[in-house]
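Morning!

This is the sequence you dropped in the shared folder:
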Amino acid sequence: MTSQTTLLTPRSPTSSAYAYFSLGMLLAASLDGVRSGQRVPADHWRTVKLLVTGGAGYIGGVVAAKLAEAGHAVTVLDDLSTGHADAVPAGTTFLPGSLRDDAKAALGNDTDAILHFAAHSLVGESVGNPAKYWSNNLGGTLALLDAMLQTGTRKIVFSSTAAVYGEPESVPITETAPTRPTSPYGASKLAVDTTLAEYARMHGLGAVSLRYFNVAGAYQAASGQWLGERHDTETHLIPTVLQRGMTGKAIQIFGTDYPTPDGTCVRDYIHVADLADAHLLALGACEAGRHRVYNLGNGTGFSNREVVDACRSVTGLDIPAEEAPRRAGDPAVLVASSALIRVELGWHAARDLRDMIDDAWRFTQARSAQ
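The structure's back. Tokens below.
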């Protein structure tokens, strides 16, 4: 195991020696411990209990793994509609179920905070079946929030999306940019953001929404388990390029005449492990009665050609590429600014494009060998 850190809270809430340690401070200390390998003596503390919704999925699974490795008591709630039971990280408790039916039971009366990833996330599908997205993404979250009020859970970090901004007027996109989602998927996530702000105002919840575009890479947990993208319908560029590389099929590059350095679209990519770190820090930023919003970005973005070339370099495969016409509605550049979270929480994207592809390739190879 890479870290033996135990995340802990005071054994007694009346202990003056430890009373100043809030959950936020402890979460920040936990992240520092994960990075440094330090350990807090366990005889003074109890573990923090967390619920990760959608923890059998890609991002939720990596976050759940990192939390468990840091010593948290982690429960994963997932209905497995898009997740995988064998992707639930070791060291967590798995509860198969839905937000509507099982959130209250999953929380119990002693859960300290929630990390909320459970959602449908295919833009194209949301256009064809918007009711599915409103019912699950917004309706499921409302059920979760109701369960929080009933059980006394006061903190939540929400996996939002930079798709709430639609086609931006300028890049990199900041948190003050107009929110004009162009799909029911983006609109449903924005509705959850708005709901969290209202619940913070009305009920005193502490909430943080993290907005980001493309997540890439994979994470090898301390158990040796590789956690990565396993979508039945794969729409993301890096895993698609790697899959095509293994089969010898060509990847299509949609549009080569954009006003970008190489003529192809530029997109924001963040390593899933960096994103997980941001979620741990966001837990520490949950403040009663306040809803915070942070964008997460790499700062510059990578073009489609850069991604394909980097995949060729990492894998050593001559992955064929075909030029195709532009797709309707594809902006030339989508990059989010992470300046605010860097200043307030100290987060930045530490891993580069090659790191993302290298880890994604290791995961792809591990999966193919099973």
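Headline: DSSP finds eleven helices and 18 strands in the chain.

More detail when I'm at my desk.
O.
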